Amino acid sequence: MDPAKRQSVGARNEVRDDARLQEQVKDWLRYGEDLGLGPYYRDRAPLHRIAEASAAAVEPQSIATSSAISAALPNAMAAAAPGRKPAGPASTAASAAQKSVTAAKAPPAAPAATILPAAAAPSLFESLDRIADDTLPRIREDIGDCTRCKLHKGRTNIVFGVGNAKAELVFVGEGPGHDEDLKGEPFVGRAGKLLTQMIEAMGLQREDVYIANVVKCRPPENRLPEKDEIATCSPYLLRQLDVIGPKVICCLGSCASQTLLQTTQGISKFRGEWFDFRGAKLIATYHPAYLLRNPPAKSEVWKDLQKVMAVLGLQPRKR
Ligand code: URA
């Protein structure tokens, strides 16, 4: 090979090695994030994240509320439903709609679900108004060709959500990745295939449940959604959850669970526990993408899904 050609092949290999290394580093960072080990690598993250992580670290026994997200929410909720009437405080609607998790629906042998409060004080999400006569098509219409946050710049498709509009079980992920962005549907990539397998193992089909994300546009380079993006987009997720009225919401990973529970605690502190959420029961488990990187954690997730199955009276799929 002539020296010039060899040099250019060498340069290409270096670029490839760099990209591979970057991917590996990103994987490790996400791995730490999934485990709630954020602070050890967050020194390059925006300051508010570090502050949150430290605040969470000194409150090990309680769910620490993320005040910045909370503060942004009421306005964002109103902005997410322009010209639509509130249906009254969610807490009222929630208690009316509260479907208690009792042995009536679950098989007799099922372990009782322990319901824990999501936060010491009523969460802001609980007190946010529901929108009267809301529907999924109306929410999609309100989102429109959204440019409300910077994520719109890199997206191909808005990934609204998919599945049964009357589902008893809703899965909430973080945000679309590459495949989801291209298809306009949540969880269709590798992590999505694993989620589908998990759903089927629970004795359900993908079409039986509803699947949505905290943010509806793909974050660049699959980075975590940022606080302003979450604050802008999550009111639409909240409206979707209100309209569907599931019995169980299963949060996949830190982003979804920390957003809905308004906490900065690492998911490993509260996964597998039950919380009340606007009339539904909420449980957090690890994200399928985390399971792809850390297969032994599948057994923990299966335990969490079995709790969901007990509440919904589901039997595991027969092999
Ligand atoms: N990960 C998510 O959190 N959501 C998706 O839709 C796909 C991957």
Can you tell me about this structure?
The protein is an alpha/beta fold and 319 residues long. It has a single domain (61-312), classed as Uracil-DNA Glycosylase, subunit E (3-Layer(aba) Sandwich), CATH 3.40.470.10. The chain contains 13 helices and seven strands. It has helices at residues 3-34, 47-57, 67-80, 90-97, 124-127, 136-143, 178-183, 190-201, 227-244, 253-261, 267-270, 288-293, 298-312, and strands at 115-116, 162-163, 169-173, 210-213, 248-252, 274-277, 280-285. The protein has a seven-stranded mixed beta sheet with strand order 1-6-7-5-3-4-2, with helices on both faces. Strand 6 and strand 7 form a beta hairpin. The protein starts with a helix and ends in a 7-residue tail after the last helix. Mean pLDDT is 79; it is low at 36-62, 90-114 and 118-122. Bound molecules: uracil (URA). Residues 173-177, 180, 186-187, 189, 191-192, 213, 289 line the site of uracil.
Short descriptors:
Uracil-DNA Glycosylase, subunit E, seven-stranded mixed beta sheet, 7 strands, 46% helix, binds uracil
Helix content: 40-55%
Give the oligomer, counting copies of the same chain as homo and different chains as hetero.
Answer: single chain
The CATH superfamily appears as Uracil-DNA glycosylase-like domain
CATH architecture: 3-Layer(aba) Sandwich
Please report which band the strand proportion falls in: under 5%, 5-15%, 15-25%, 25-35%, 35-45% or over 45%.
5-15%
Give me the strand/helix succession. Answer: HHHHEHHEEHHEHEHHEEHH
Bound small molecules, deduplicated: uracil
By secondary-structure content and strand pairing, the structural class works out as alpha/beta
